[in-house]
Known about the structure:
Blueprint lengths: L24 E3 L15 E5 L6 H17 L2 E5 L7 H14 L3 E4 L8 H9 L4 E4 L5 H6 L7 E3 L2 H15 L3 E7 L5 H14 L3 E8 L4 H14 L5 E4 L2 H13 L7 E5 L3 H9 L4 E4 L2 H16 L7 E4 L2 E3 L4 H7 L6
Parallel strand pairs: 1-12, 2-3, 2-4, 4-5, 5-6, 6-12, 7-8, 7-9, 9-10, 10-11
Antiparallel strand pairs: 11-13
Helix pairs in contact: 1-10, 2-3, 5-6, 7-8
Amino acid sequence: xxxxxxxxxxxxxxxxxxxxxxxxxxxxxxxxxxxxxxxxxxxxxxxxxxxxxxxxxxxxxxxxxxxxxxxxxxxxxxxxxxxxxxxxxxxxxxxxxxxxxxxxxxxxxxxxxxxxxxxxxxxxxxxxxxxxxxxxxxxxxxxxxxxxxxxxxxxxxxxxxxxxxxxxxxxxxxxxxxxxxxxxxxxxxxxxxxxxxxxxxxxxxxxxxxxxxxxxxxxxxxxxxxxxxxxxxxxxxxxxxxxxxxxxxxxxxxxxxxxxxxxxxxxxxxxxxxxxxxxxxxxxxxxxxxxxxxxxxxxxxxxxxxxxxxxxxxxxxxxxxxxxxxxxxxxxx
Length: 333
């Protein structure tokens, strides 16, 4: 039984209005309702993969604001880089040692965080996954559990871009910029796009750039030097998408190469408006953050959730970019 269950039993009656009658829960807008915490006794550690781009800083801003509204103490933390898995593991273990009331985690690796999650379970601390899933079969085999995964379906979100590319780009010769190995969410984004175009596109290259802008620039530069007929790029995050935009521009191929990426960061929006990026998949980190904090509060109070508490995603193109800017006005720089 999780810590402080008795103290929050009454608060749990006012539950988060996310649970559906069947299938995944759904959260297409900001979390509302539910127990409001209302006590400085609640302390939540919110641990993500990095603070290296607008996605994570937006999530941090929204999480802190929502926690303040609910009267909850929130410690938002991240390693310096998304590849610093061991540092993230240490952050989770430190939160367990500190005895926080809940942990919200965006895991930097699908397996490496499992022992730390099990330690949290053994200490009676509920763990909520946000934005990234883990290897659930391995977690179960190791005797661990999580409250729920809060976030989009990574595969279905990437499919939005793949469907658009298939419908609008003929005779596609595609380059895939892969993410960090061992992160299931990034693998799902790769497959969600690739599976839609595989029958109509020729794959020129599929290489990792480790979610890094400079690495993506170098990878794309090398690919374009050898393959001038590339006309489609799928990058599984915004930083790599921007690296591709820069490489294509330097090669003098802007307009010839259609680039899509993930996260709809401010640089992405500017690139869409400039015509150097066709589209980017938005996944509303503010909604994920608010929902995850509310789920953690309710889990402390004893509420249970389905395996996936799903939040919305949208492909942003020139056709709907102004609508998206309005939706995200509080978070876009």
